[in-house]
């Protein structure tokens, strides 16, 4: 029944992310309808699959409470209460960019992606169609409909250190987050004869007093004393109502309405519809904070490179002291990084690597097929097989692994069909393809863990996503899932997702390091909307009015107001529409920008303030700019020019928006 899914998801979630929990005690607590945990620590290694550019040093939860009304499950919600959450992050140490640490995070990220692919494939097999209702969508909506969440007092900080500018803390805080059923919309949906409560889920998420700040640490505070620093910040998080003057974004509130339509027939209604409304935003930033934000962006850019090449980089301690031979180590680092890129490109195109890929393919297919056979028979998979598969997972690309697994599954299916025919031809022979009684509902554990992400489906001790007719029937019974029949499926319209964001007003102030206001801005009626279909996507953005003021004399130097139209709605000052087409992967996005008339007044004082702000940006060099600047040291003009052209050619920037198997792509080369 659905209770099994709930218990498995909760047990998997808590056991994976919360430290010091015994699985057996956890199961007992879940079935006793209430779990209460206090002062628990998070398992930081569980977040490796995210491949974050920083390291999580501390994660604590003051109180965690879960109430499960088993007797009224489906009618009364599961109530989850979390209080006093504190997370502290630091830049990664030099040792964390080594081969072992990088390989561990890369493998976790790869397994998480593979699990997402396996879950999607599993859902399609259970549903037996590509366009009908997805099992995962149904499960997500069902869990969403049966859950109520309350989170209070959250404080997340990132500590950054610069030798010449001191140490800074970037923080995110909010007082409370609650997720409950939107009773008004739910009642309206239930009143309609065309839909029932099971077809539509309406949730409202309220987040209060969200703030982002940038604080400079005092000199006497020890940056390396993580315990003392986190205790000080954690104590502050217990009194978030306390005013502070270093907010980048003053506390604001957010209301998010979520509609999940798990009906098989869309009829133009989005499968997921999310609308976020923010209260007025007040942004204030000074020169020092702006410099720190630029430094942080540059640091994350370097982290992306270190993720790719950090395993070849010499130790920082050796390079900083410039021991004998440090130049040679730099050249060795450059050579190893370049050769790694060359090998990565040749891996799929060179005859030299063809034999190795064929050998990987043969080994992986045989090992994975053996694993599936053992799981189908209800037998344990040996550690040797799992270790060999993990080694191949590290070596092979994701596309190759998916291909190898598909081949293994197809061969196993062909063997099963042949075995079935042989059994029918020999009535007296016993059947050998029956699943063992010990296997139980292995798919339940596999599916519930996989829905958590983070490599959950890697725990395939009793199931590996292989679907038979008996398993499909068991899934329908256990999850109460009833997919759209093939006869009705041709009437189902394509999947459609809608996301909207609206901000009534944004007040912006930029000040100098001495506290003098440089410029004031007011943006009114800011909104954006994303519409996503199976074969296309559209992004809309608009701004109703814009006003820039000189803070010295309060004169409006730029004024752009909403223009009147015949329909009475008015036209925004700026509107942008970007269309992506999925039919042609090589086609670029089409962009349409409309700008209405606006008035500008020249004032010398404000002009000089704008130049000062521009100098802050222009004087800062990101990593890419520093590379180009270093090439200016070549005396020969031709050498400088060719070197810079090589940098531009070797670093094309491509962004892609992917849905299912074919991504939308918007290509642009940045020079």
TrEMBL record:
Record-level GO BP terms: protein retention in Golgi apparatus; protein targeting to vacuole
Origin: domain of life: Eukaryota
Record region (Disordered): 418-438
Keyword Transport attached: yes
Domain Chorein N-terminal: 1-449
Transport found in the keyword field: yes
Key words of the record: Transport
Biased composition (Polar residues): 418-429
PANTHER family in the cross-refs: PROTEIN SORTING-ASSOCIATED PROTEIN, PUTATIVE (DUF1162)-RELATED (PTHR16166:SF143), VACUOLAR PROTEIN SORTING-ASSOCIATED PROTEIN VPS13 (PTHR16166)
Protein name (database record): Chorein N-terminal domain-containing protein
Annotated source species: Aegilops tauschii subsp. strangulata
């Amino acid at each position: 029944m659905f209770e099994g899914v709930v218990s498995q998801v909760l047990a998997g979630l808590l056991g994976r992310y919360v430290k010091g929990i015994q699985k057996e005690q956890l199961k007992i607590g879940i079935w006793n309808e209430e779990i209460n945990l206090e002062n628990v620590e998070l398992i930081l290694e569980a977040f490796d699959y995210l491949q974050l550019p920083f390291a999580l040093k501390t994660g604590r939860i003051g109180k965690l409470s879960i109430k499960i009304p088993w007797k009224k499950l489906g009618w009364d919600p599961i109530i989850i209460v979390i209080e006093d959450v504190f997370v502290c992050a630091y830049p990664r140490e030099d040792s964390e960019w080594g081969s072992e640490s990088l390989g561990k995070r890369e493998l976790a990220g790869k397994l998480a992606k593979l699990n997402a692919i396996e879950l999607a494939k599993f859902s399609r097999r259970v549903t037996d169609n590509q366009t009908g209702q997805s099992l995962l969508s149904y499960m997500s909506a069902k869990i969403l409909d049966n859950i109520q969440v309350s989170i209070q007092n959250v404080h997340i900080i990132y500590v950054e250190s610069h030798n010449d500018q001191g140490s800074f803390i970037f923080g995110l805080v909010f007082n409370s987050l609650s997720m409950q059923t939107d009773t008004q919309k739910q009642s309206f949906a239930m009143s309609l004869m065309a839909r029932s409560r099971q077809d539509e889920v309406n949730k409202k998420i309220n987040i209060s007093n969200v703030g982002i700040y940038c604080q400079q640490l005092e000199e006497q505070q020890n940056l390396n004393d993580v315990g003392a620093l986190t205790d000080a910040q954690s104590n502050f998080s217990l009194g978030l109502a306390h005013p502070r003057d270093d907010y980048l974004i003053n506390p604001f509130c957010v209301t998010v309405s979520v509609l999940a339509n798990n009906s098989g027939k869309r009829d133009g209604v989005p499968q997921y519809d999310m609308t976020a409304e923010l209260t007025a935003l007040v942004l204030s930033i000074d020169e020092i904070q702006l410099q720190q934000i630029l430094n942080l962006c540059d640091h994350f850019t370097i982290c992306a490179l270190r993720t790719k090449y950090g395993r070849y980089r010499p130790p920082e301690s050796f390079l900083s002291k410039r021991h004998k031979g440090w130049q040679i180590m730099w050249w060795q680092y450059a050579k190893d990084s370049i050769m790694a890129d060359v090998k990565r490109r040749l891996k799929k195109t060179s005859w030299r690597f063809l034999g190795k890929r064929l050998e990987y393919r043969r080994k992986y297919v045989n090992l994975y097929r053996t694993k599936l056979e053992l799981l189908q028979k209800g037998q344990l998979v040996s550690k040797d097989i799992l270790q060999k598969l993990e080694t191949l997972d590290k070596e092979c690309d994701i596309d190759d692994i998916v291909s190898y697994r598909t081949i293994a599954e197809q061969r196993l299916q062909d063997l099963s069909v042949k075995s079935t025919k042989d059994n029918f031809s020999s009535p007296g022979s016993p059947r050998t393809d029956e699943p063992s009684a010990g296997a139980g509902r292995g798919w339940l554990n596999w599916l519930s863990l996989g829905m958590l992400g983070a490599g959950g489906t890697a725990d395939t001790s009793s199931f590996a996503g292989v679907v038979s007719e008996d398993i499909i029937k068991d899934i329908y019974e256990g999850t109460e899932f009833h997919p759209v029949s093939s006869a009705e499926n041709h009437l189902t319209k394509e999947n459609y997702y809608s996301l909207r964001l609206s901000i009534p007003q944004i007040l912006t102030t930029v000040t100098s390091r001495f506290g003098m206001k440089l410029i004031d801005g007011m943006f009114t009626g800011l909104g954006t909307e994303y519409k996503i279909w199976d074969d296309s996507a559209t992004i809309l953005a608009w701004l109703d009015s814009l006003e820039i003021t000189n803070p010295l004399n309060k004169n409006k130097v730029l004024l752009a107001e909403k223009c009147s139209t015949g329909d009475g709605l008015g036209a925004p000052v700026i509107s942008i529409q970007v269309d992506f087409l999925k039919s042609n992967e090589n086609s670029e996005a089409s962009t349409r920008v409309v700008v209405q008339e606006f008035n500008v007044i020249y004032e010398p004082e404000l002009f000089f303030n704008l130049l000062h702000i521009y100098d802050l940006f222009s004087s800062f060099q990101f990593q890419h700019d520093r590379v180009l600047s270093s090439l200016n040291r070549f005396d020969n003009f031709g050498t400088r020019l060719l070197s810079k052209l090589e940098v531009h050619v070797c670093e094309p920037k491509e962004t892609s928006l992917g849905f299912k198997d074919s991504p939308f792509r918007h290509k642009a080369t940045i020079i």
